[in-house]
């Protein structure tokens, strides 16, 4: 096995993009993707948006048409999970006992949705949204469902609530923090989205924790809150984050904890093993030098490009400014930068107009923007975040001044 032969674990966004980028860089070795799911690589973002709504067929989620992979000389082993790695022998073992040698191993395994661990967390009718089959199962149950409870007020929980409200389902959303999107956004944005969901008929309950779920005939019938309140439910969606899928890597001795630690070139601490995408924890200039795991398509693509260039002898580069998006009702949220550690927020525009931005600063420098139906601010704000621009708050708040004009 030559070091030119690349085995990629995980046929998701990051893994697929790496395979394509390697071929674009004229990589001549073999490329094998081992993936636990049965499907060819597909986009996950629509799973909690148009695909959940039934507005997009699965074929339109595929990252590339099926035939393209063979043309590019990319081989797949689907429906197989890598369970162990032997770094000394450059060998991985899959759950069916098969062994596969690698020259370079790239771990791009993302992470399964975190499951509820409280009593009743395994009843029928409790769902997560991470894979196509998760959503197919959920959608199959929807026609018979009267009362939906969503647990978790992050992007995925809110997007699912929006889709199900539009489908006419009564939805209760339970969030343990005192505001939605608490992990990723500032208060003005959280309050705007809370108001929006309430206006759309979501029974939004903040600062409540789930202590258990009870069922009837094996199927969920209610969610119990810590104060004893019972919330009736015949379908529950848990949107409570992911658990990075890195156990085999850590067992093989890789450094990590919350994900696997990687350096600027996405190398783990084990020889010839890289990690990219949702499972990789990397020091980020956009998080004041903290090690972070970024769960976004942009990050998966950027890290894939870095590894492809590194493996083909090019200048590896660094990940670009982090970007995210979320669609809820008629609201398109676009985020640039990481707001973690901000010490000031500036509201740009009037939330009542349903087009505005929240600008986040740290030590007087712009570090992130959340833009709601404000695509121009998103595009122009990128340069401010990339430059770590110092801009007076009055200028940022003044919608008559374009953000491209405040960067001197
Ligand atoms: C519902 C939903 C909505 C989202 N919306 C957005 C959005 O609007 N914008 C945005 O930027 N991002 C969004 N994301 C996040 C984005 O999809 C992820 O950041 C991206 O998919 C990460 O790519 P990845 O390759 O790291 O992981 P994944 O795409 O999860 O791929 C990892 C693959 O590895 C497989 N795998 C895991 N362990 C093993 C193993 N041991 N052996 C073999 N295979 C394994 C998994 O089954 C999976 O197929 C969303 C995610 C979800 C779930």
CATH topology term of the largest domain: FAD/NAD(P)-binding domain
The count of domains is 3
Q: According to CATH, what is the class of the largest domain? A: Alpha Beta
Overall residue-averaged pLDDT value: 96
Number of strands: 25
Amount of beta strand: 25-35%
As a whole number of angstroms, the C-alpha radius of gyration is 22 Å
Report the sheet with the most strands, covering strand number, pairing sense and barrel closure.
5 strands, parallel
- Helix proportion: 10-25%
Give the helix/strand class: alpha/beta
pLDDT < 50 stretches: none
Could you characterize the architecture of this molecule?
- The mean pLDDT is 96.
- The radius of gyration is 22 Å and the shape is globular.
- The chain has 408 residues and is α/β, with parallel strands linked by helices.
- A 5-stranded parallel β-sheet has the order 3-2-1-7-18. It has a 5-stranded parallel β-sheet with strand order 8-15-9-10-11, covered by helices on one side.
- Strand 12 and strand 13 form a beta hairpin.
- The termini are far apart.
- It has 10 helices and 25 strands.
- It has helices spanning 13-24, 50-53, 66-71, 132-141, 155-166, 187-199, 247-251, 297-311, 375-387, 393-397, and strands at 6-9, 31-35, 74-78, 82-86, 91-94, 99-101, 104-107, 126-127, 148-151, 171-175, 203-206, 210-216, 219-225, 230-232, 235-238, 256-257, 259-262, 273-275, 280-283, 291-293, 323-328, 331-337, 344-348, 356-362, 365-372.
- Flavin-adenine dinucleotide binds at residues 9-15, 34-37, 44-45, 47-48, 81-82, 108-110, 129-130, 156, 245, 277-278, 295-298, 300, 324-326.
């Amino acid at each position: 096995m030559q070091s030119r032969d690349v085995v990629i674990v995980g046929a998701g966004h990051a893994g697929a993009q790496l395979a394509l980028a390697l071929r674009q860089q004229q990589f001549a070795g073999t490329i094998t993707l081992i993936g636990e799911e049965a499907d060819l690589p597909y986009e996950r973002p629509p799973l909690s948006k148009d695909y959940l709504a039934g507005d997009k067929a699965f074929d339109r989620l595929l990252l590339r048409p099926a035939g393209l992979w063979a043309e590019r000389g990319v081989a797949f082993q689907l429906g197989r999970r890598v369970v162990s790695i032997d770094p000394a022998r450059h060998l991985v073992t899959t759950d069916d006992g098969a062994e596969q040698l690698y020259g370079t191993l790239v771990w791009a395994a993302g992470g399964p949705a975190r499951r509820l661990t409280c009593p009743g967390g395994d009843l029928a009718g409790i769902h997560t949204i991470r894979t196509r089959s998760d959503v197919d199962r959920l959608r199959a149950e929807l026609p018979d469902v009267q009362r939906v409870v969503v647990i978790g007020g992050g992007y995925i929980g809110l997007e699912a609530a929006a889709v199900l409200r539009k489908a006419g389902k009564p939805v209760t959303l339970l969030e343990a923090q005192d505001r939605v999107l608490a992990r990723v956004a500032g208060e003005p944005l959280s309050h705007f989205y809370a108001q929006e969901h309430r206006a759309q008929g979501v029974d939004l309950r903040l600062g409540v924790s789930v202590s258990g779920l009870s069922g009837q005939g094996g199927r969920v019938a209610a969610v119990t809150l810590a104060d004893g309140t019972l919330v009736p439910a015949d379908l529950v969606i848990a949107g409570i984050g992911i658990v990075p899928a890195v156990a085999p890597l850590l067992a093989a001795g890789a450094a990590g904890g919350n994900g696997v630690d990687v350096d600027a070139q996405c190398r783990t601490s084990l020889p010839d093993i890289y990690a990219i995408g949702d499972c990789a924890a990397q020091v980020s200039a956009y998080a004041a030098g903290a090690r972070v795991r970024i769960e976004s398509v942009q990050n998966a693509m950027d890290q894939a490009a870095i590894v492809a260039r590194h493996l083909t002898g090019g200048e590896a580069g660094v990940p670009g400014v982090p970007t995210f998006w979320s669609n809820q009702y008629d609201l398109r949220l676009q985020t640039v930068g990481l707001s973690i550690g901000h010490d000031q927020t500036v509201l740009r525009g009037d939330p009542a107009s349903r087009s505005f931005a929240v600008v986040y600063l740290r030590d007087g420098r712009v570090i992130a923007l959340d833009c709601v139906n404000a695509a121009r601010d998103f595009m122009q704000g990128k340069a401010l975040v990339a430059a770590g621009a110092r801009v007076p708050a009055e200028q940022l708040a003044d919608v008559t001044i374009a953000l491209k004009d405040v960067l001197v």
